[in-house]
Amino acid sequence: MISKISALVGVLVVSVVAGVALGPVSVPFGVTLDLLRAALTGGTVPADLAGQYHIVWDIRLPRVLLAAVVGAGLSAVGVAIQAMVRNALADPYVLGISSGASVGATAVATLGVLSGLGIYALSVGAFLTGLGATALVYITARTSRGLTPLRLVLTGTALAYGFSAVAMLLVFQAPHGEAARAAMFWLLGSLGGANWQSLPVATAVTLAGIVYLAAKARPLNAMAMGDETATTLGLRVTRFRTHLFIVTAAMTGVLVAVSGAVGFVGLMLPHLTRMVVGADHRKVLALAPLAGASFLVWVDVAARMLAAPEELPLGVITAALGVPCFIFLMRRRSYVFGGR
Amino acid sequence: MRVELRDVTVRNIISGITLDACDEVVGIVGPNGSGKSTTLRCVYRALEPDAGVVLLDGADVHKRHGVARSLSALTQESQVEFDFTVAEVVEMGRLPHDRDPARDARVVARALDAADVTHLAARSFLSLSGGERQRVLIARAIAQEPRVLVLDEPTNHLDIRHQLDVLALTRGLGVTVLTVLHDLNLAASYCDRLYVLDEGRVVASGTPREVLVPELVAEVFHVTAHVVAHPTTGVPQLLFDQEVTP
Lengths: 340, 246
Description:
- The complex is a heterodimer of chains A (340) and B (246).
- Chain A is mainly α and 340 residues long.
- Helix content of chain A is 74%, strand content 0%.
- The model of chain A has no long low-confidence stretch (mean pLDDT 87).
- Chain B has helices spanning 36-43, 86-91, 101-114, 130-143, 160-172, 184-190, 208-211, 214-221; strands at 2-10, 14-22, 25-29, 51-56, 59-60, 71-74, 148-152, 176-180, 193-198, 201-206, 223-229, 236-244.
- The termini of chain B are far apart.
- The interface between A and B is medium-sized, with 29 and 31 residues.
- Chain B: It holds the Pfam family ABC_tran.
């Protein structure tokens, strides 16, 4: 287990350096390392490397780090939500957060709402409507006996259709094509807006969330066995599910605000991890975030390079990479989430 | 440890169930839909009764702290979708207790052995047969080191040898066992006392010899039964006629 974690940490470090070096304008690895070292230790940079330093430090590094944070966060949330609703098809967006956020983001992009906030308008709009949507799902799904898995999934899915309809309506009513394109781009996920300012909040919320979920790995195991069994094991199931709901909603809301609705990562990485190490959440929650971080770093590299100088939306690439990989593993291994 | 139900009522299902068990094996029998599982669900806290109270050594199970360290259960729940290994499932029984890796490992190994599933430890739980799964879940309940063990039809899916094994095993733990059993003859052989439920009420209680008489069996289960003594143990056993009594 320790060796698997160290290996994935190594992969992540290499991925981050590679992610910084690679792009439409590639910076040689050696130069990238020198520049990173200079930046971290306060060394001096030769004048002829100033342009590359700007690319590495101001543009690429925050973006690559944000990719890692988003990938780690979505993977951890996916693991937790699948256990919380005991459903193999659940992902971070099953509770309506991304479709809710898309209403705010499209309203900002097409109607110019919140334009006083400048470049933060899209994130703030997405975050506010995302959390609003989650609150609505929570209130609608809640019964006197708390949150039951099936009601949560059904309510989230049903309301998500409603929110998506509103977002689509806004896109079609958009006054000019550029606004509609910006909205669509956001809906499919992008890290194009990453900068050092967007990192601290997203990183802090994601790390705190992952630490909380990893600390609850054994209760998550119990919950995965069923609510009655978890109760006999001493878990206060209703309270625990409400806590999980709040933690995962906060994490997803922040991640969606900084990166849009990057699809497939939160569904696929949990399953890929379980295929390798089994269902024990103590292992899955240690490895899935690390794997997800590296995965999204490379997805973002592809997003920058494949159609350079244009950028592709992240969701297109996660699906293009993920679907074949997922089907291959699913067919090769005897993976039985969902029973035989 | 003493478990006691006082006038436990769940609307439309059971009404005024009163029973107790203390360091003995107590069976609950009754026809389908008589409220057996609902009664047990109130004991292992999956349900909170609409009226009445379930007491563990005199304290309400819904208010008392650390109930899971004293009471474990084998439920009828069977909706597991996650591919845990057998060892991982049994190890979940240690969740209510303070972490102590060395001791936990010993307890889990003993529980696996007691339920005769040590050879399955590395296997995927979902790949097992119904009977093997049942034994693994019993191992998990044992790993919880309960002083009260609640079993909802523990012999389900088990072949005859493992039915006898599981009942002997739970009896041998020397703790309070409260179990729903379908098979009246197994109930007669393994339980110190029986409660008979019908339409949500206790209609008879006592030793198997007192309870399992042809009149009661006819009234509650609507079958004609003859009572014979088991040739070696002398326990009452029932033989049934083919026709169903109206």
